[in-house]
Amino acid sequence: MAKRSDSYPDNAPGPFFVDRACIDCGTCYDFAPEVFADAGDHARVHLQPLGEAQRRKAAQALVACPVAAIGTEDKGLLRQAASDFPVTLEDEVAYCGYASERSFGGRSYFIRRPGGNVLMDSPRSAPPLLKRLDELGGIKWMVLSHRDDVADHAAIQANFGCRRVMHRDDGLRGLERYLEGPDPVALEEDLLLIPTPGHSPGSLCLLYRKRYLFTGDHLWWNPQAGRLSASKTYCWHDWPTQLRSLERLLEFDFTWVLPGHGAWFRADSPVAMKGELERALRALAG
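The structure corresponding to this sequence follows.
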């Protein structure tokens, strides 16, 4: 639990604060940028929430924080915020919250679909989230984008009996299914697994309904640069390979980029998204 006595002095005065347990994973300021911001090596409250909607969003960020570094004296919304997740982004796609320190705060997403629900990467196995996921029909598939963001996958699989799928080249043993080789594979009619090695040897993306691209740590929106981006610094396998994998995404239609780290992004059309991806590739290759 966050401690006011250990909070950073650059928090805006008021009920919400960030303390020195923060690992600067970006969960809070990517999710609730109206309230939280990057302060270099930690997050801070740059503006106390104004009105009910912002208070609710700040409380959700508190619940999502993987290291309990956010605190508040405003306790009114915390119980409600704990049961808000997964929070709908659009249609049947939602953000799970409850980030895990074991994945450095990496995001997990929930897809509610008639053919069986899907988790993209693993959240914390927090009882309120597991209860809510069970109410929504449980989990059929858990797609793991790469070896860094597996978090509590084993506990979640034991709870729901879901089938975990990952690329063989990332070497996590004991899963129910593996993708092998460089070719895209249809997990189901509306679920396409796309190998995108580079960040790790077996990084992959999941494309849902030719609309939502779940990218793990392969691609995200960078608000500071105002474009899609990837990281050479945090590339654990091979940067030229990652650039080729980014270029490969031009073959597919999608309008959403939903990453494990970094901000999510929605374009007006697949054509507009291709333009953004081409712009990013020019910058990253330069």
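The chain has a mean pLDDT of 95.
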